[in-house]
């Protein structure tokens, strides 16, 4: 597949003529998904177009992103059907938008904007750019082309996508363009210190106990340069912490010097296990994730499994050199 399927120009043409727009991100939206939804819908509404954003249940905006302008956000049940243009952001597969599929497919036309590896078969118009560090980089490019105003709230949403998906401008996906876009967003009023504090420097006190439990359980297989740990439903319950507050845990698990690959297994109540994988660059963890029907990028990927945690870890170690 080419690095960029279809063009910004094609998406711009569709959006320019839209009479109503609904933007949907993947379930459990991260900063990039939520930032993309908010930025595009808000800029469209400011441009005089009827516009909404939503995502499937659980419909909860993560606390650390609650500083964003959520005025275009509606509950999934209130998301309009038969929109002129529906836009899927930060994923390109129907399975990742959960219950929103029906509403999206009832739109006159479906646009998909994403930066993940994909077969790119869903939607009428696709913009899939694997070189983009964040979907909000693509949204930024589209808004500039459309000449829809990038106000401070729009800029803050775009910046949130970039700063979270690049690990604060650190992952290998970070490009000169990433910084150029970020620079323009600062010029438009984004305060990186304020956004950074909200996104990265606040947690509930209960989170300390979750960190202690997960880090205390970590194992380091030095032969395979593989470090891993597990989060249990009990950890969350005891500490009174919600699952979405634990997105940063993998960044602690992967710190061990001498580790090449890290894995965090989050065991859910129904015996479902969500796995996060990270690589320092030698190993393609997207390939490992795909053996569990998951996906992602070379250095960061994820999957869902109903196997026992020990069996999952054994299967991963089998795939390591
Ligand atoms: Mn993303």
Characterise this structure.
By secondary structure, the protein is α/β, with parallel strands linked by helices. It folds into two domains: 197 residues, inorganic pyrophosphatase (n-terminal core) (Alpha-Beta Complex); 114 residues, Diaminopimelate Epimerase, Chain A, domain 1 (Roll). Helix content is 36%, strand content 19%. It is built from twelve helices and twelve strands. The chain has a six-stranded mixed beta sheet with strand order 1-6-5-4-2-3. A hairpin with a 4-residue loop joins strand 7 and strand 8. The longest helix is centred in the N-terminal third of the chain and has 16 residues. The chain starts with a strand and ends with a helix. The mean pLDDT is 95. The site of manganese (II) ion has 6 residues, from loops.
